[in-house]
């Protein structure tokens, strides 16, 4: 199955570079649109219904975070930027993006990240993952839901999400079918009113659930 992608960046050279990488390294990925800012990305997402949108953060007219907030229910968004500033990282994750990478990502890593996001998995640049861990280990946060909002099984799945596991890895660890793991994840997102696996992983970190599973 072909993964349909829209590229969003205000620099033509960046859009061209990513398009060349995807064309050269991935036969299963097709670039179906190219947007110069967040407003165009929103319009293309609504018209073309791509599987994944690669989104820059800082752009004229409408920034990537605002655009992500508008289209996260229509498609999956992978943020790509030059800087992992706190306001970018946390703003993008709260907006509902499925991944956050830096633009100097290796071509193979970019291609695999697009595939992972398309599968519904979260991807983070190492520097971003480190930033999240340091942030949540340094402070105690209340996320506004009771422990019994999730079943024990769902709490276990949430803990695995906090460790960055895919549905396949969760299914293997819990010895259940892949579809069962996928259903658990969907229910967790619904019950906690979350938009993505990345947000779920953050909640798991906030609650310290990652230490409850092996």
Please, could you describe this protein's structure?
This protein has 2 domains: 3-133, Rossmann fold (3-Layer(aba) Sandwich), CATH 3.40.50.2300; 140-212, Orthogonal Bundle (Arc Repressor Mutant, subunit A), CATH 1.10.10.10. Helix 4 links the parallel strand 4 and strand 5 (99-102). The mean pLDDT is 88. It has 10 helices and 6 strands; from the N terminus they run E-H-E-H-E-H-E-H-E-H-E-H-H-H-H-H. It has helices spanning 12-25, 38-48, 64-71, 86-95, 107-118, 126-138, 152-162, 167-174, 178-191, 197-207, and strands spanning 3-8, 29-35, 52-55, 76-81, 99-102, 123-124. The modification 4-aspartylphosphate is found at residue 56.
Please tag this protein with its features:
214 residues, alpha/beta, Rossmann fold, Arc Repressor Mutant, subunit A, 2 domains, 6-stranded parallel β-sheet, 6 strands, globular
